[in-house]
Amino acid sequence: MATSLRRPSFSSRSSSSPDADDEGVRGTCEDASICKRFAVSIGYWHDPYIQHFVRLSKERKAPEINRGYFARVHGIRQLIKAFLQKTECQCQIINLGAGMDTAFWTLKVCTDFFRVFYQDEGLLPRKYFEVDFPVIVTRKLHSIKFKSLLSKPILDLHSEETLQIDGQMLDSKRYAIIGADLRDLPELEEKLKKCNMNTQLPTLLMTECVLVYMTPEQSANLLKWAANNFETAMFINYEQVNMDDRFGQIMIENLRRRQCDLAGVETCKSLESQKERLLSNGWETASAVNMMELYSRLPRAEVSRIESLEFLDEMELLEQLMQHYCLCWATRGGSELGLKEITC
Length: 344
Ligand SMILES: C[S@@+](CC[C@H](N)C(=O)[O-])C[C@H]1O[C@@H](n2cnc3c(N)ncnc32)[C@H](O)[C@@H]1O
Fold this sequence. Notes:
It is a single chain. This protein has 344 residues and is α/β, with parallel strands linked by helices. The protein has one domain: Rossmann fold (3-Layer(aba) Sandwich). The chain is built from 13 helices and nine strands. The protein has helices at residues 18-41, 63-86, 103-108, 111-117, 134-146, 148-156, 185-194, 216-229, 246-257, 271-279, 291-297, 300-307, 315-322, and strands at residues 92-96, 127-132, 164-166, 169-171, 175-179, 203-208, 233-240, 285-290, 325-332. A nine-stranded mixed beta sheet has the order 3-4-5-2-1-6-7-9-8, sandwiched between helices. Strand 6, helix 8 (216-229) and strand 7 (233-240) form a beta-alpha-beta unit. Helix 2 packs across helix 13 (315-322). The longest helix is centred in the first third of the chain and has 24 residues, at 18-41. It starts with 17 loop residues before the first helix and ends in a 12-residue tail after the last strand. Bound molecules: S-adenosylmethionine (SAM). S-adenosylmethionine binds next to helix 1. GO terms for molecular function: protein C-terminal leucine carboxyl O-methyltransferase activity. It catalyses: [phosphatase 2A protein]-C-terminal L-leucine + S-adenosyl-L-methionine = [phosphatase 2A protein]-C-terminal L-leucine methyl ester + S-adenosyl-L-homocysteine.
């Protein structure tokens, strides 16, 4: 979730049971996808799929938030693209806490997206998995079932006659979506295996703004599980950083008012603490950049294009926001493929 000091959020949801705590976390799925849809609607990047998963926000999002989402989507998709190229698509991708993410569809068919970001055509892994809470998966599946723009790419790639589908999962040849709790690793593993996850294939696992909602112990267990299960793998993590200051405190308080606890914020102290968590849980290399640094490395032409979309009166707002988010990536094995050289 993006926070800006320009727009603190004071809305509240009341309840206090453990499941209600998860409700606050699940609510972040809507927040992220609404922000992405808003940025797409004013031209930050091309994504014809997001509109089928989420409504358009009535209220304008601040320009620094839109630019933040642009850098986030751009940075993550650069890393995904590099992994697909290094493995020549002989790999799988597992998006953990995927929410309404549309990367599978953009990878499959959105040549316009590739034109904007990569100047080339689509790349697709052997299989793309998404995992989120069952309630979120049920919602996503509903959209997939009833919108042909979403179901067609899945069906086109599916050679067999029958498709495995129920309210909380869909398993097809190249795409699977699974309802599971990332804190319950035996359940997660069992469901992924049922959908033919192949631990021998080079695997890209990703968490985009997800680990911060789990305790440090739970996220460490997830990272360890991932490192132990795949010999050749890469992990991408996007989330908060530098959370010890006033801005971080405001973000924590705003979310707490909405019954959403940043249970893992302790690990979001610095780029060093982010890297350390990866390295101490079985990953061999770890890199991290804050989003302001990443923004400054974006192609100049793209930055000029998006900066002309909306006027940003105070550059400091963007800097402040971007210094509180980071993109981290880690690898294990795969030296022969050049995974360790991947950077964004
Ligand atoms: C901020 S949203 C981000 C969604 C998506 N990754 C994106 O960036 O658009 C966080 C997502 O993580 C999911 N999530 C958080 N904790 C989870 C858990 N323990 N098990 C499954 N999903 C979880 C939430 O339901 C939500 O969809």
